[in-house]
Amino acid sequence: MKQRTLERYLENLRKTDQIKFIGSPKTGGYFQVNKDKKSKT
Hints:
The mean pLDDT is 88. This protein has one helix at residues 3-15; strands at 19-22, 29-32. It has one domain. The longest helix is centred in the first third of the chain and has 13 residues, at 3-15. It is 32% helix and 20% strand. The protein is flat and about 30 Å long. The chain has 41 residues and is of the alpha+beta class. Strands 1-2 form a two-stranded antiparallel sheet.
């Protein structure tokens, strides 16, 4: 898979708030955002 294709996929996932980059550019990474946050009350 070409690098530009991966960049496009990552951009789409970021725009739709499905993934988020956490950490520094050198050691960080992309993580899935959990949208099913239910309060336990």
